[in-house]
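Deviations from the work plan: none for this task. Representative record:
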Amino acid sequence: MNNFKAKKVLLEDLGKNNPVFIQVLGICSTLAVTNVLRNTVVMSAGLIFVTALSNLTVSLVRNVMPSRIRMMVETLIIACYVIIVDIVLKAYMPEVSRQLGPYVGLIITNCIIMGRAEAFALSNPPGLSFIDGVASGIGYSYVLLVIAFIRELMGSGSVWGHHVLGDWWTNWSIMVMAPGAFFMLAVFIWIVKGMMFRRQEGSS
Amino acid sequence: MKKGSFAKKRIYPVIFMLIVTVAFISVTTVVYTFTKDTIKLNETLRLKQAVLSAAGVRLSKDPAKIEKTFDERVDEVTGRDGKVRYYAIRGEGTSEIESYVVIRTGAGLWGEITAGVGFDSALETFRGLEIIDQNETPGLGGRIDEAWFKEQFAGKRPPLSHVPEGDKASEHQFQAITGATYSTEAIQKLVNDALEYARAEIKVGNE
């Protein structure tokens, strides 16, 4: 595998092909798990693990897999990895598992994973697919972490469960509710896209 | 269409799917088998912790201490079918029953809520509430698992109703969670029903 290609895949998934703010995938979980930073971190780790491994696996079987049943196979592979994440969380991090509740199971339906398997892993070698999976996962994670940080700070006055803003701060309840996530995501896309357009205009 | 393609087009996908399914289910089974005991242990510990916490017993997070306190002070009262009906908790160092805890399950927004509800020995006031399992929306309904919410039930008298979050609550009221009316009402129903259940069960048990 040549390094140049790997690097390009990695950078594209983080920036101009970012799953969240360019492809606008995985929005359900972006809205749902970003009100507390800790849950976001665990969710992101789970997602990176699942996208990377499902991409790798799909890529490994891509040449022997009949294309008609590829969706079934992909779903099965993804579901298996998610169940493993769920079991491991239950066994070794019961507290976090309890807090995340149904969202771990919902990783199965995260469109980023299926999207990457379909759009990338089916037509690329395993190594590169694995990198693409990790990169997409990170691309998703850092957007979520930024949003979660701001939502938790403004909505609960805390970071990672520790109170950092004093009594003078009035919590913005709307930030921990679903609309807060819509506002934050929209502002995030606005800023990032604005910067991208400006750079394009500058270079042309 | 060529003849020999029938096997390739019809049979091969079925066999392929079969192999993939068996392979992945085997992997999952292996992981499950290895972690089964740990998960079971976590769940039992969680239940013991919940019973003690619902009874208003302050605890450290040390698993060994939770086990010890539970063994020393808690009686599991089982029904005729061998299932646990309720828990009776003795006072520290005495044999007198200090409080009762029942485990109840009620409907939440997304799934069931299972909680331990504690009462004093006369079944007149709540001792505490501890959520054992819930699937409410994280950050909204999920806040039923936050300390401030659960702690406010201690000392309250049934039947309970709710007031908006942040308002002053009387002894028959508790503070709701903003943005999670349904989950709040689910808890309200759960704790009120728990008392009825406890009154029915425990009287029978004493006589």
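The mean pLDDT of chain A is 85.
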